[in-house]
Amino acid sequence: MRIVCCLSLLLLCSACTPKPAPETTPAPHAFYPGPAGEQPTQYEGWDLVWHDEFDGPALDPAKWSRTPRTRGDWANMMSDDPGLVTFRSGVMTLHGIRNPDTSPDAQPYLTAGVSSRGKFSFTYGKVEIRARFQSARGAWPALWMLSNDYKTKERYGEIDIMEHLNFDDKVYQTIHTHYTLRVDKTNTPQRFTTAPVQRDRWNIYGIEWDDQNVTFTLNGKPTLKYPNLPDKGHAQYPFVKPFFFILSMQIEGKWVGQPKAEDYPAWMEVDYIRLYQRPGEHNLDEPGKK
Asked: What secondary structure does DSSP assign to the chain, as a single string?
């Protein structure tokens, strides 16, 4: 997420969580299921160590929690309304809608996100997330990762695997750290890229990450490599510790702009999320399994 979002995320707290809005039923949309019964790809030199195919009837509470509302641009429309996260034919949909009743919740739009914070984190690996989204003015779907100690600004690390704005025919893939935010804003080393996509189509967004590089991928092809440069100090590459996932469908923000009411509902569909690690180098943190 952009700088303002990174800094606002530090405000995350239970007091920011709103009262639940009345249950809503998102309007039907053109649903495109993932490949029926597709088995995870096996890659030479990689073990599949964690995944969610979203083939159940509801969110797996051992892996995910709903994202609470915060004052950050990326989460100020979040709602815990159960109707905003749905499951069908092995696909999870995060909905974004116009708020049908602003009396209990004054926000004009409502949307959803899920996070593995406190449920699952990991250090290093190959991540693949197959997703598609319905574009809309003011829609901002994102697939990203934060370090467990993100509240400590000198140790801040964020990997934005994919962000999409409005009706763009491209996605953003970005690194954020204390170094990129506060120390050196010259994009040295290169910390972000854009990659062309066929808007609203299925794509596989990913990274390959180790102690030397974070390499972004799109449909299996590298798009940007962010290196570890020891001479720049530890804040330049804080990617040597556990990170967790956030999958969010935001509406409105300083970066994405204002929504256009007639474009809604909007949504992001996620077919699967898969994590591979090198044999003998599995590094997972699953507190619920201890």
From this structure: --HHHHHHHTT--GGGPPPPPPP--PPP----PPPTTPPPPP-TT-EEEEEE---SSS--TTT-EEPPP-SSTTTTTB---GGGEEEETTEEEEEEEE-S-TTT---SEEE-EEE-TTT-EESSEEEEEEEEEE--TTEEEEEEEEETTTTSGGG-EEEEEEE--TT-SEEEEEEEEHIIIII--S-SS--EEEEE--TTS-EEEEEEE-SSEEEEEETTEEEEEEEP-GGG-GGG---SS-EEEEEEEEE-BTTTB---GGG-SEEEEEEEEEEEE-TT---EE-GGG-
Model pLDDT for residues 42-68, shown as the tens digit of each residue? 999 999 999 999 999 999 999 999 999
The predicted model scores a pTM of 0.89
Q: Which domains does the chain have, with CATH numbers?
A: 3-16+55-289 (2.60.120.200)
What is the token pair recorded at 173?
Answer: 């893939």
Bridge-based pairing state of the strands 284-285 and 121-122: antiparallel
Q: How do residues 195-250 score in pLDDT, each as one tens digit?
A: 999 988 999 999 999 999 999 999 999 999 999 999 999 999 999 999 999 999 99
- pLDDT (0 to 100) of residue 153: 79
- Residue at 138: amino acid letter: G
